[in-house]
């Protein structure tokens, strides 16, 4: 009897985290469609190709290097782990590699339209091997000094349940570095480039896939079935709906902002989704959509930073907002189920900004010097699809 | 040991109903694509925008008002419920709000092409706050007099396992009221409007998403993992396949009718999916597709009711058919696993028709008088996309 | 207590295999998009129509005939099975019918563009009733002589965990027979037919849906939650990523080969996914993508076999490779968790080739003689969409 309960529990844990892993895998299809729908049509094929290839490379690199960096576990060398506990360690890796692979996928939307195909892959390799796993190890893994230091000062470590800071802000702030070094697309600021999304249905499809998959991203961050929390689901739902509503209202009914507003809410709720009250989640999502709509405009029109999908405000700034928001609303007086430390949330979130910006500049600068980052003007004009993949999205339709 | 079994059971229940909730959430992406693929291209963006926005508004309204109406539970005021039993009550709400949000999504397909954007939202608000939850409370919730009355008369209450009556027929018959008050689209009956679907692949995508998600809609209506029934899955599968086959045969191989035929079968099987024999499910699905193909033609060509996606026959009439069919086939003599009352099924199903038609006329009439329902001829000609969202589905392709 | 553990276990098993079934159902939407994106635009509607209709017909035929052939269980005649053990037998059938229906869906991609609509359906009926279930029964079901014979000779039976041989190779080699009898599409080898994919985003969507659903195909092949294995998931993941990487590298960054390369890896890993070491899975996937890229070219350009989606190399040859690869890498000395017999894997895999080729020639030859297989030149020129479904994918866009 006891054996069968243990076996069922362990099997349930494997199923639980596997479902999360598969849902986040699906999100990568969502990243591809969101990007393909937002870029110009001559870069659609490239979006699909990049996301699938970078996912694939990232997964293997993270298996052999990154996972060891973050957690000290080399799954490939210990045959016992293949089947121990129904193979839980294998599926947990799958779940976490899906997180790791999200970072290059996030960046992809910012640098699209003028980055060289394999420059993006090289960046993904270093991100999955070192940059992301080291910070992951710092917050969630085996590298304990930073969280210990925060606990000593603030009485609490950085709480980042599902990665507002570790995944989204790292991705968004790395992207900012890449975007700045790359410079804007040819014609972006002289009016010769059509910057409208090429395909709203694809944008919406990408957004829907991401929305749905996000419930795997957040809920399965509990990592064990027996730790599942319905509160995480409801907070994700509410931040998403509030983000969509805000996106629509703040943009005066723009489809791109509405669908991305839902994502902004989801980025921001990750950190505190297991802690804050659902009404706080509504506020967090609403603010996130406001940040996205306003700062995307400020970034791309005032600062003239050519962030194609707005990944810096969407994932970077909103990831930081999510980390801080958990500190603001994570108090029992506000209906939260746990006490978090605002200080630790602020310092931890800002540490991620500095970390990502600093390493991002080094990473993209080195790639630029050694391999080259930027497609030629001619290549950009032809588009990434014909330049790299010798085919357009709809070949028959070309005259 | 006993604690760990209880905890595992409770965690399993949360996972179970969460999966259902997420699958129905995904169905809303399906509603969007089904609508976008069926309407003219100038209304595609609008389809996505409406579905996401109305989902979002509906969710919050149902949380604060509708759920209290139907079940008497105000989740926002009782902090204990946030984490009690792994947060089961929170996820159950998520599951049921996904049902509630289906009603405006169903209606959307009927009124598209000429309804004002926010008129639709206003209707969604009243539907999610009062109209749907009151009827839901009557059949599934805390308002017991109607089911008691049916039981007194027929020895059985209305059995509606997964909402043929409560969700689909309420949605479809409300839509009929809205469609009649709105009137047909500009040019619909003078031959100047192209009424062919704009995009069969989108229509098919929407249909596939709905088909797949429907297994969450039906199977997870058991609400507890320990109540799961494989029979529900197989009956859903068979009604769907029979509906697709019927849709193809009755329409002479038309893609729209085939993909909607699958949905017609699924609408009709909801009510009795936990009770009837799989062979009965085949018959129910086949009849449902016949109803859809024949009555869609009768509705739109003979009665000249401009129901764009055919939501009245698809969800309304077939929802009613599903309620009654459960009474016809829900007998052990026909291989069913439970005895249902044909009388209660007929009276309950017809009550929903009257309820929805009556309140639908009042609702849309009042909105029409106060805010206005109908887009101007000029706006319809330009299309909802440019009228409300200042962008077309594929901006680059416009000359 | 014991009752509640048993009930929870049994409910968990039903949920587990149901999730698998639904994920494979979703894969059929993926088959449809992969085909629609790869064929010419005038055959897109047809792709959707065929996949949904053949799925539906196959399901019912397999229920009434095929399942009895393979497992000796007639679910429709034993009312007790409807609810016994939470209806596990019903959902297991759903899972296995989703496997059976994959065979016609695989074939569809090879014969598209010139096969008569109902000729394909007739073939699907015989495949689902007899051809597939008999071989299934031989390897997994109640017909024991072949596996006994292998065991006598090699000390081990054919190990085919998730159907590299039973599903994919049977599908791919049947397709080869059909393709050869049908002959190439009009204009395929005189340069008058545009053979480029019509829609890369649809191709990518199909591929993503298949990739994601494949984790249900493979992991849920354990059939019981308590038998779940994380190793299966990780091996599927690695074969997929290696296949995508190989597809890109071997094709010089072609989007079709990259996305199909991921699928090639998944086809090949099915058989041994529960046994081999993850590093072996990487090699298996890499070889699979090499096979696909090189043999697709050899098949279609050298042998001039007009296999539109390349289903013979993708599913047929790679299915065979998967069966044999399990024998090559299924040894504890190579880190595998079980010992397999290379001899049994080779003989079993080749038996499937002969079986499918032989019956495929008979099947398609008879259909050709009695009903006719091939669309007229005129019909091919117009396209399957207008010929059979009286509508194009995007009617508004036609001048």
TrEMBL record, chains A, B, C:
Subcellular location as annotated: Membrane
Signal peptide: none
Keywords for the protein's UniProt record, in alphabetical order: Ammonia transport, Membrane, Transmembrane, Transmembrane helix, Transport
Transmembrane domains' residue ranges: 14-34, 55-73, 93-115, 122-141, 161-182, 202-222, 228-250, 262-293, 346-367
Gene3D superfamilies according to UniProt: Ammonium transporter AmtB like domains
Main location: membrane
Record protein name field: Ammonium transporter
Organism this protein belongs to: Rarispira pelagica
């Amino acid at each position: 009897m006891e054996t069968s309960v243990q076996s069922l529990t362990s099997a349930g844990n494997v199923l639980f985290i596997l479902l999360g892993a598969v849902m986040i895998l699906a999100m990568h299809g969502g990243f591809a469609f969101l990007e393909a729908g937002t870029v110009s049509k001559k870069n659609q094929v490239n979006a699909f190709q990049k996301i699938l290839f970078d996912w694939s490379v990232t997964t293997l690199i993270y298996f052999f290097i990154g996972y060891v960096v973050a957690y000290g576990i080399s799954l490939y060398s210990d045959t016992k782990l293949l089947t121990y506990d129904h193979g839980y360690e294998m599926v947990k890796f799958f779940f976490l590699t899906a997180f790791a692979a999200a970072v290059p996928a996030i960046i992809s939307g910012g640098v699209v339209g003028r980055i060289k195909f394999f420059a993006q892959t090289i960046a993904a390799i270093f991100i999955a091997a070192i940059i992301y796993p080291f910070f992951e190890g710092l917050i969630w893994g085996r590298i304990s000094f930073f969280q210990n230091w925060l606990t000593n000062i603030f009485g609490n470590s950085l709480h980042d349940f599902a990665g507002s800071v570790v995944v989204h802000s790292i991705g968004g702030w790395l992207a900012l570095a890449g975007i700045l070094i790359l410079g804007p697309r040819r014609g972006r600021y002289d009016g010769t480039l059509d910057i409208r999304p090429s395909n709203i249905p694809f944008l919406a499809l990408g957004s829907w896939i991401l929305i749905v998959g996000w419930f795997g991203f957040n809920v399965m961050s509990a990592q064990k079935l027996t730790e599942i929390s319905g509160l995480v689901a409801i907070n994700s739902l509410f931040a998403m709906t509030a983000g969509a509503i805000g996106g629509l209202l703040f943009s005066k009914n723009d489809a791109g902002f509405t669908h991305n507003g839902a994502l902004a809410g989801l980025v921001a709720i990750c950190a505190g989704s297991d802690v804050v009250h659902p009404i706080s989640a509504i506020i967090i999502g609403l603010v996130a959509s406001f940040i996205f709509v306003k700062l995307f405009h400020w970034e791309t029109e005032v600062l003239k930073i050519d962030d194609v999908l707005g990944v810096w405000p969407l994932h970077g700034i909103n990831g930081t907002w999510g980390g801080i928001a958990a500190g603001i609303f994570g108090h029992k007086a506000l209906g939260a189920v746990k006490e978090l430390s605002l200080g630790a949330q602020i310092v931890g979130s800002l540490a991620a900004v500095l970390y990502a910006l600093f390493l991002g500049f080094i990473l993209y600068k080195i790639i630029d010097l050694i391999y080259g980052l930027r497609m030629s003007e001619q290549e950009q004009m032809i588009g990434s699809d014909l330049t790299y993949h010798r085919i357009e999205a709809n070949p028959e339709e070309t005259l």
